[in-house]
Amino acid sequence: MKVTVFIISLLYLGTLPNILHGARIKDISDFGGVRINNLIGYGLIVGLDGTGDDTGTEFTVQTLVSMLDRMGITVNKKDVEISNVAAVILTANLPPFAKVGTTVDVLVSSLGDAESLQGGTLLYTPLRGADGNVYVMAQGAVSIGGFQAGGASGSEVQKNHPTVGRVIGGGMVEREVPFIFRKNREITICLHNADFTTSSKLSKIINEEWKEKIAYSCDAGSVNIKIPEEYNDRIVDFVAELEILDVPMDSVAKVVLNERTGTIVMGENVRIDTIALSHGNLNIVIKEDKDVNQPLPFSGGQTVVTPESEVIAEEEKGGLVIVSSGVTINEVVKALNAIGVSPRDLITIFQVIKASGALRAELEII
């Protein structure tokens, strides 16, 4: 049985010469300082159809009583029923350059023992940043993207996760993150995947494009760029021209294995030294049967059922395959497919090859 291996490769079946393909700067990096900001808040969802927190959820009761008290309504805590109310934690991402009045999506997650947030409405809730300031106010109908329904017998049908929902566009930006991009005289490009070769090529391409030395590589993950004089008042235009430049990509040779799903991803630069590879599968079959023993007539004995087990172990003999040194990823896959391994067997094979020191690549197991 042949195994299908997912290959990230710039080669067409290993027949074309090894060339580096370019990627736009905007696709492989971020600009320093341009980032999202995480926000968090605590609030209440009301209007649930008996699927809210249980009465014993003390913090939900306290929150509801405190809210009613601020609205001028005095209630006895012991008289409060919260089956239609759920306490939730709110999270949101404030995008870069977000202005006052723009909206963001808000994720709500049950904090107590609510069964479902379906049909609920989030009450007016502030979301704060790491500095403690309020940046977003959230309110609106909650969508869980699914449902939960059950009967009196205890059977139920559920789609998606009913205790987590989203308020689409329910967060209103009330405060901007102070960041004035146009006043910068130097910007930094931060690579998503740090690599010295890519960083060096990036700075060279930028210098060749503007015909002056305005970019220099700081390390494997960042490149500093001085704003040219003619762009002092047009930094946004400069960045727009900069981010569409193509840069030849380079990366380390890596094999990524997912043991849970049996998925294997290999880069095009993966090579192995000359090895002799043999693989055999051990199949174990356990067969259970029952033997019924009847007593003789008029003997006064009892019928006895005796279990019988049959265990058969068979080992498939695999041939010895020679894999030459420095072969391409296409040839590696062909050689492994030749001995008919499964994805999970292939994971074990790669681990053994790495342990032998013959694999010229990083081995990452997730």
Mean pLDDT: 79
In angstroms, what separates the terminal alpha carbons? Answer: 25 Å
Q: Which percent band covers the strand fraction?
A: 35-45%
Shape: flat
Oligomer: single chain
Q: Show unreliable segments.
A: 1-20, 282-286
Secondary structure tally, helices: 6
Give the biggest sheet.
6 strands, antiparallel, barrel
Gyration radius over CA: 32 Å
H/E series:
EEHEEHEEEEEEEEHEEHEEEEEEEEHHEE
Structural class: alpha+beta
Number of strands: 24
- Sheet with the most strands: spatial strand order: 4-5-6-11-8-7
Helix content: 10-25%
Give an overview in words.
The protein has helices at residues 25-28, 58-70, 196-210, 235-242, 329-338, 343-355, and strands spanning 6-8, 22-24, 29-31, 37-46, 86-94, 103-110, 121-128, 134-141, 147-150, 156-159, 164-173, 186-191, 215-217, 222-226, 246-248, 254-258, 263-267, 271-272, 275-277, 281-293, 304-316, 321-323, 359-360, 362-365. The protein contains six helices and 24 strands. The strands form eight sheets. The chain has a six-stranded antiparallel barrel. The two termini are 25 Å apart. It is α+β, with helices and mostly antiparallel strands and 366 residues long. Strand 5 and strand 6 (103-110) form a beta hairpin.
Question: Main traits of this protein?
Answer:
366 residues, alpha+beta, six-stranded antiparallel barrel, disordered N terminus
Secondary structure layout plus pairing:
Layout (H helix, E strand, L loop, with lengths): L5 E3 L13 E3 H4 E3 L5 E10 L11 H13 L15 E9 L8 E8 L10 E8 L5 E8 L5 E4 L5 E4 L4 E10 L12 E6 L4 H15 L4 E3 L4 E5 L8 H8 L3 E3 L5 E5 L4 E5 L3 E2 L2 E3 L3 E13 L10 E13 L4 E3 L5 H10 L4 H13 L3 E2 L1 E4 L1
Parallel strand pairs: 1-17, 16-24
Antiparallel strand pairs: 2-15, 3-12, 4-5, 4-7, 5-6, 6-11, 7-8, 8-11, 9-10, 12-14, 13-14, 16-17, 18-23, 19-22, 20-21
